[in-house]
Design a protein that fits this description.
Bound molecules: 6-O-phosphono-beta-D-fructofuranose
CATH topology of the largest domain: Rossmann fold
Strand content: 15-25%
Largest sheet: 5 strands, mixed
Structural class: alpha/beta
Number of helices: 11
Length: 359
């Protein structure tokens, strides 16, 4: 048996750890061969882009960020499926089937986020044997408690908050930190609590700038002459709209960003405080995966191969509590997993006096 493996969507720390686990488990436990598909699903179009993956060729990749297979992001799934290199429409499932036959692949393991899982599901619906492995720093895929890459991103954002605290305090400033997460506030929430932010703004809880300023002024009057505000890129004011750098049109997905500066300007306008804004951006996608993410990625990769061996195609591996399980791809492609706006974590934070910009 030969398994094809690909990574799609935005990269994140831990992708190489999954690839390694798949190759090692396939080869050592089941005696299967593995072919790497380069550039996500693009690599399965004609001409195919592949590389041989063996325990020898993947040595040393466990701690390395990014993906040795390359990936494509920022493109809509329907565009990836529709267009050949020359821009002409294709029957994507037919092309994938033909190229899998040519490469002698029995099945595929597709590692990716919501877009990649959506493509995997439609290929499975068309009869292609495929298993999904969820990844993303955003932690927003339904059906899994955690995606790998998320904890490393939270680490990076928390370290940034630690560093920004000392300069904010020295200069008696408000520092606004914008983090990624797309339509979910998971990175802002977990890094905000871990890094001791005073205000956390997330898409799930529309904020009122007056409440944010009230928190900052109260802290000042009580002797804390600085404040740290962490804001998720998808956050928005009550009654307002998300801040978008590039609209969702044509071949590209919507790109978020700019809310940090808007919040910073509003705070500066409503208080006498000196305000600075830091946008962490793609720093959150890089670096070596944390041990938690390496372990999760390794467990996901090994389980994906176990599912292949059991011919349980159309499933996505997932984490439930501390157990690795699987769910139908259909359940993982519904809508994004959001932070419960009155959930335990938000309540814990509010109990600590952290403001979400609401009453
Ligand atoms: O989904 C991961 C993510 O980093 C989001 O948090 C962010 O909105 C987006 O990807 C950025 O995408 P790109 O790398 O295409 O700019």
């Amino acid at each position: 048996m030969k398994i094809g493996v690909l990574t799609g969507g935005g990269d994140c720390p831990g992708l190489n750890a999954v690839i390694r686990a798949i190759v090692k488990t396939a080869s050592l436990k089941y005696g299967c061969r593995v072919t790497g598909i380069e550039e996500g699903f693009e690599g399965l179009k004609t001409p195919v882009k592949t590389r041989l993956l063996t325990p020898w060729t993947i040595r040393g990749i466990l701690p390395i960020g990014g993906t040795i297979l390359g990936t494509t992001s920022g493109r809509k799934p329907q565009q990836i499926k529709k267009l050949a290199g020359d821009g002409k429409p294709i029957n994507f499932s037919k092309v994938v089937k033909e190229n899998m036959e040519m490469l002698e692949l029995s099945c595929l393991i597709s590692i990716g986020g919501d877009g990649t899982m959506g493509i995997a599901k439609s290929l499975h619906d068309d009869g292609i044997p495929i298993i999904g492995v969820p990844k993303t720093i955003d932690n927003d895929i339904p059906g899994t408690d955690r995606t790998f890459g998320f904890q490393t991103a939270v680490n990076t954002a928390t370290e940034a908050l630690d560093k920004l605290h000392t300069t904010a305090e020295s200069h008696h400033r408000v520092i606004v930190v914008e983090v990624m997460g797309r339509y979910g506030g998971w990175i802002a929430l977990e890094a905000g609590i871990s890094g001791g932010a005073d205000v956390i703004l997330i898409p799930e809880i529309p904020f009122q700038i007056e409440h944010i300023c009230k928190t900052i002024i109260k802290r000042y009057e009580q002797g804390s002459r600085f404040s740290i505000v962490i804001v998720a890129e998808g956050a928005k004011a009550a009654g307002g709209s998300r801040s978008v750098i590039q609209a969702n049109k044509g071949r590209s997905v919507e790109r978020l960003g700019g809310i940090g500066n808007q919040v910073g300007e509003a705070i500066a306008g409503m208080t006498d405080m000196d305000v600075r804004v830091t946008v962490l951006g793609h720093l959150q996608r890089g670096g070596s995966p944390t041990p938690f993410d390496r372990l999760l990625a390794t467990r996901f990769g090994a389980e994906a191969v176990n599912l292949v061996a059991q011919k349980r195609f159309g499933e996505m591996v997932c984490l439930r509590g501390n157990e690795i399980k699987s769910i139908p791809l259909a359940k993982a492609t519904r809508k994004v997993k959001c932070v419960p706006s009155h959930g335990a974590l938000v309540k814990t934070a509010e109990g600590l006096g952290i403001s979400f910009g609401r009453d």
